[in-house]
TrEMBL record:
InterPro entries associated with the record: NUP210-like
Protein name as annotated: Uncharacterized protein
Domain of life: Eukaryota
Length: 215
């Protein structure tokens, strides 16, 4: 992997261009941060004839290993990695005794939550919008929220916002505002790996005004 410069000549006429060389097999995500107790499923990305194919590790002849077992470990012996202690470890894709690809996994304590509204913080009365809750570490890096994370939302205000449905971990929630007016959304990291947090992660609050525009 890396870069190289290629020169093509026709008699005395030459041209140069830079060529990026990438691995034909990589682990995804290549870089990720999770909370202690949470887990993350890795997949294999293959490049063939200019096309990318994403596969579960179990569907390939590869295996995985996590060298720093004090930071994280391979929970299902296939591709599910669980964080244990704060730190950083490599996650290695193996073909027999040969290392094929490497990813970097950081385990960090949750510190705060950022909330975004989609699309583009524009909320229209009667139209669905999405509340995206993102868990951050103390340095502001986004954590990849797995199945062991549970985020809970609460809403108040004149807009009368209904929370319709959400993903299992609560990071994405469909909502709709019944009325025009301001509202406030509060997101809390409720639990990790089934353990209810006594000291709640910092809360990020959105205060927004609803437009009564209708098409």
């Amino acid at each position: 992997m890396g870069e190289c410069r290629v020169t093509v000549c026709l008699n005395d006429i030459c041209t140069d261009f830079d060529l990026n060389v990438v691995a034909s097999v990589v682990l995804t995500p290549a870089t990720a941060t999770i909370a202690p107790g949470d887990n993350l499923r890795y997949r294999v990305v293959r490049a063939r004839a200019g096309r990318l194919t994403v596969q579960d590790v179990a569907e390939t002849f590869y295996s995985m290993k996590v060298p720093q077992t004090g930071v994280a470990f391979l929970e299902d012996t296939v591709s599910l990695v669980r964080g244990t202690e704060v730190g950083t470890t490599a996650v290695i894709l193996m073909s027999g005794p040969t290392e094929v690809a490497t990813a970097t996994l950081t385990v960090a304590e949750p510190h705060s939550i950022r909330v975004q509204l989609r699309p583009s913080n524009l909320v229209i009365q009667g139209e669905n919008f999405i509340v995206h809750a993102i868990v951050l570490d103390k340095d502001g890096h986004a954590l990849t929220a797995g199945s062991e994370i549970l985020i809970r939302l609460s809403v108040e205000g004149e807009a009368n916002v209904n929370l319709i449905r959400s993903t299992e971990n609560g990071t994405l929630t469909d909502a709709v505002a019944q009325n025009a007016g301001p509202f406030k959304i509060t997101a809390r990291l409720y639990s990790v790996a089934g353990k209810i947090l006594q000291n709640k992660v910092s809360i990020y609050v959105i205060i927004s005004n609803i437009s009564n525009y209708s098409r």
